[in-house]
Automatic annotation (TrEMBL):
InterPro entries: Flavoprotein-like_sf, FMN_Rdtase-like_dom, NAD(P)H-dep_reductase. It comes from the Bacteria. It holds the Pfam family FMN_red. It comes from Pedobacter boryungensis. Residues 4-144 form the NADPH-dependent FMN reductase-like domain. This is NAD(P)H-dependent oxidoreductase.
């Protein structure tokens, strides 16, 4: 079975995007699509990094653990809020910490906002940063508008049928690229 990591990017108090990370964990497990790990940046409580991991002389256990989670994942779902048209510093921080670990890694991006635009303004800047380090961002999005109304604190959607239908398209696209990468690696 595939290993999918869900990177929950927000570290703010009272964050709401984590609801979407919980939803994807439940969705993938209930449908037996993958082994799932949530990588919660709030739990890591990382400092601002001054260098890539490979150049840090004495990396912390948390840094090594984070790098290992990304490395062993067959694919990653990044769940990011949109803050003023951009993604949080916590996400930029860990994106820049790693390099080889992101190379050709299939990544799906779910954008989240409290407003009506569903975090769609963040996608371009995040995709560009991931492309620059060689990640494989999949050509599907999962935008979530008015997150407080569409998901409860446990990740349960207010419209389960419609949400699961959108999630199926999004997740299937990620799994397609995970399979394609495995086939290319086997050649």
């Amino acid at each position: 079975m595939k290993n999918i990591s869900i990177l929950s990017a927000s570290v703010r108090h009272g964050r709401n995007s984590h609801r979407v990370a919980l939803y994807f964990k439940n969705y993938l497990e209930e449908n037996k699509l993958a082994n799932v790990t949530i990588i919660d940046l709030k739990a890591y409580n990382f400092p601002i990094f001054e260098e890539r991991l490979r150049f840090i002389s004495d990396p912390s256990e948390a840094m090594l653990s984070f790098a290992e989670e990304i490395t062993k994942a067959d694919g990653v779902i990044i769940v990011t809020p949109e803050y003023n048209g951009g993604y949080p510093a916590s996400l930029k921080n860990v994106t820049d910490l790693l390099y080889a670990e992101w190379k050709r890694k299939p990544i799906a991006i779910a954008t989240v906002s409290a407003g009506a635009f569903a975090g769609t303004q963040v996608i371009t800047s995040l995709q560009f940063s991931l492309w620059k380090i060689g990640a494989l961002t999949i050509p599907a999005m999962f935008p979530v508008a008015t997150v407080e109304k569409t998901f409860d604190e446990n990740g349960i959607p207010s419209d389960p049928v419609g949400t699961d239908k959108r999630a199926a398209v999004f997740v299937n696209e990620l799994l397609y690229w995970v399979d394609a990468k495995h086939k290319m690696d086997d050649n």
